[in-house]
TrEMBL record:
Residue span(s) of domain CP-type G: 32-209
The protein's name in its UniProt record: CP-type G domain-containing protein
InterPro entries from the UniProt entry: G_CP_dom (IPR030378), GTP-bd (IPR006073), P-loop_NTPase (IPR027417)
Subcellular location as annotated: Mitochondrion
Length: 368
């Protein structure tokens, strides 16, 4: 099966990660973990943010290593980036986690106002339960997670919405939000609600020096939790294409409309917008380039005559796709940059922003 060959690509990337084991765990991350451990017993509620595409791999290891005297009763798991994951797989994960864990689990899209409101309401309800219904109390929430799962985006959205409803407005603060892991270096507090007063502490991402299993590392590298400078982006993109080639998502691209997205406007609106706005070939996120990339992947997979269940055959297809993607991304061979790296970076960016489909990389364990 193609999935077995994709696992071989994962093992190759995993071997590269073992070669740099712990390189991402610097002094600032060790200091952040110590600071988080110090605050864990002092807060009322812990929000553990995970990436919905990798619900198991993105677990926050310091919480697993807590003392038996620290119960899960004041913990909530937040599966962020649910808009980038496979909805059916997310539903399975929610069912599984609710059966396996004693703490609640909620899915979130940090860019959706309604989704953040639901999270805020869940936090308010939980704090009221903990404080036994007191209305004028103060609740503290610790937001924890590995790098690049969207903690700062969540706290910014909660702070903005909570500030609007707060009796005293105060100054709007902003946590640093970046697509690169490790941007948050300090613990900062944000007021997100009044009556009861609720403060959320945003913390730096902490990724343990060792992974729970051999599959976690490559999946975290693909979702962007590990700094790209530590690995060859070309190797990560090869793993991505192995995943794409082994799934059925590409079949949905056969019915693409003129704009390149299934949720685009009708052809009349598209033509009108194209007449007003120039298409820049250097911007690989524009719809017409995304459509070309999808078309290349669709055609190369559909026309491939080899056996995708064999590792060497899958690698041959991936190599062909890189060649074809050079034209789709408008990457010039005369560029001073490494052509393969340039294609890989653009491809990884499209995946991480959901433009190549919704892939959940962690499989729900079979408990039967």
């Amino acid at each position: 099966m193609a999935a077995a060959a994709a696992e071989a690509a994962s093992r190759r990337l995993g071997a590269a990660l073992r070669g740099i084991s712990g390189a991402w765990y610097g002094r600032h991350m060790a200091a952040a973990e110590r600071a988080i451990r110090t605050r864990l017993p002092l807060v009322d509620l812990v929000l553990e943010v995970r990436d919905a595409r990798v619900p198991a791999s993105s677990a926050f290891e310091p919480l697993r290593r807590r003392s038996p005297l620290e119960p899960d009763g004041r913990q909530v798991v937040v599966l962020n980036k649910a808009d980038l994951a496979d909805p059916s797989e997310t539903e399975k994960w929610m069912t599984y986690m609710e059966k396996q864990r004693t703490c609640p689990c909620i899915t979130v899209n940090s860019h959706s106002r309604e989704s953040i409101k639901e999270l805020l309401n869940a936090v308010r309800s939980r704090i009221r339960e903990i404080k036994r219904g007191e209305s004028d109390c103060t609740g503290t929430v610790l937001l924890v997670g590995i790098p690049n799962v969207g903690k700062s985006a969540i706290v910014n959205a909660m702070h903005q919405i909570g500030r609007i409803g707060a009796a005293e407005k105060g100054k709007l603060k902003h946590a640093i939000v970046s697509s690169h892991p490790g941007e948050t270096r300090d613990i900062s507090g944000y007021k997100v609600a009044s009556h009861p007063n609720i403060y959320v502490l945003d913390t730096p991402g902490v990724l343990s020096p060792r992974f729970a299993n051999d599959d976690s590392g490559p999946r975290l590298a693909l979702t962007g939790a590990i700094k790209g400078s530590l690995l060859d982006e070309y190797d990560i993109a090869q793993f991505l294409l192995a995943v794409v080639n082994s799934r059925e998502e590409y079949r949905r691209w056969e019915n693409l409309n003129g704009a390149g997205d299934t949720n685009s406007n009708d052809n009349a609106n598209t033509s009108r917008s194209h007449s007003k706005k120039r298409q820049y070939v250097s911007d690989h996120t524009q719809d017409f380039i995304v459509k070309a990339v999808r078309q290349v992947l669709l055609e190369t997979i559909s026309s491939f005559k080899g056996d995708l269940g064999k590792e060497d055959e899958l690698r041959r297809l991936v190599d062909c796709q890189f060649v074809s993607l050079q034209e789709a991304f408008k990457v010039s061979t005369e560029s001073s940059e490494d052509v393969g790296k340039s294609i890989a970076l653009k491809l990884l960016n499209l995946y991480r922003t959901g433009r190549l489909g919704h892939y959940t990389l962690d499989h729900v364990p079979d408990v039967s």
